[in-house]
């Protein structure tokens, strides 16, 4: 039996648990039979699947394709080409989607032939089918229906044989097969793993939550332009089951919106988590890059990127729950930070904000300019910094090795998914219940009516908008906004023809000469009223946003079409015949 794929799987194995649950060992001496007949080795293969497939902290083009941060991108410039989105995979490569799917299929085909107990097989396969669903959904949400390869093939891409020349399944067929995998995972996995060393493994609730997310996407206008009731009902049923499964196993909202990122094992809000570790002994495990790359460069070793726009600043409601442009909100444009939803101050760092960071609970951040010169060592381009998931207790020298876990799915998202699906089937009371619970945790005032600033008489359409707005605030900078705008086909109305904006805050000449020496002890409201000028600043200076309709389903790369002549291109792209809505 060939064993080269086994060796490749285990070399440099990086485990998903936050503890070292396996010792790294040379497994090149083992063949297939030994791996699938040994619990420890089979589990090691599953850990390899985790390592290859777990999502990471958000980065890249799709993070820029929102109204959360600035940055040039082809998607907003309107210059996306057939070969721009290469996630499809065009060759035999363990790092692309089909390469990862092949390793998954190999495991799913071989494990049933081994001698492990049926219960052990079920739990191992339940984890792996989850990741096959994840990989296929990664493709389907980009392109629509794709070839659904459910068994290991000898080759794909450049080495494809006739057996690999598989046509695209319809989007509906692809979704059905993804859901089938997730249903198996839900039925096979525990609601909570009993061993703390297994923290980070997929649970039945995580699989149910992911199924709910997918079916919500499938019910949204991108895939469901005719607002089919059965799509919303399927999304509602899936998300209701996810809420029930998770709640029964102790998952719930964390008590603190800002601190939820810094609790690892048994974090009640962490439904689906990718574990990262700080230095353990002489070994450096996976380090996350978000903290290092996001905080101001002079407060660590990072680059001060992921800077919030004025648009996301304006999205946060007031502490009374009203939007800033609503009558009775109390919003003051000069004191934009005052009396806001507490999530504002826990997500965005602004000029004059007190930001507990580098172990200094009283640090004051200043981003203003004097005579066109920044008081920072390197100025933020938007006037703001993102402070979400920035560990306040890390010393500057430890930032590069930050080990904060990435929470791909929070219980809060499952609540929002359920709220939206409930709205889809006109159960608005259930949608209200989720939104008010989130706002209560955030610290928004309940108001006399107990609706936490929400309009108590919303229509279905108004409720959809309220939920999307709540998602924008609650899930800001978590990589969800791009897909929300895309699945609701909102790029044209929210961003097209516009520029994203920031601000430049200038210190007026009327400020005292010793302002810099006194500023940390001064009242911030007085500082802004008397000494600060807020000047709008365009971030998109080379073009106005120009998202095009064909971007709702990207093109299959040309090399993939060449490799597999049975593939069809999407409608809206050159020579496209495939309808991703079917």
Brief summary of the model shown:
The protein has 582 residues and is mainly alpha-helical. It is built from 21 helices and 8 strands. Helices cover 38% and strands 5% of the residues.
How would you describe this structure in keywords?
5% strand; disordered N terminus; 582 residues; mainly alpha; two-stranded antiparallel sheet
SSE topology sketch:
Layout: H1 4-10, H2 32-36, H3 39-53, H4 61-64, H5 74-77, H6 97-110, H7 118-143, H8 171-188, H9 204-219, H10 229-248, E1 270-274, H11 290-294, H12 310-315, H13 342-347, E2 348-349, E3 369-370, E4 373-374, E5 385-386, E6 406-410, H14 411-424, H15 428-442, H16 460-474, H17 481-487, H18 491-494, E7 501-507, H19 515-518, H20 524-531, E8 532-538, H21 558-563
Antiparallel strand pairs: 1-6, 2-5, 3-4, 7-8
Helix pairs in contact: 3-6, 3-7, 6-7, 7-8, 7-9, 8-9, 9-10, 9-14, 10-14, 14-15, 14-16, 15-16
Would you mind describing this structure in some detail?
With 582 residues, the protein is mainly alpha-helical. The protein is 38% helix and 5% strand. It contains 21 helices and 8 strands. The strands form 4 sheets. Strands 1-6 form a two-stranded antiparallel ribbon. It has a two-stranded antiparallel ribbon with strand order 2-5. It is globular and about 80 Å long. The chain starts with a helix and ends in a 19-residue tail after the last helix. Residues 1-29 and 279-284 have low confidence and may be disordered.
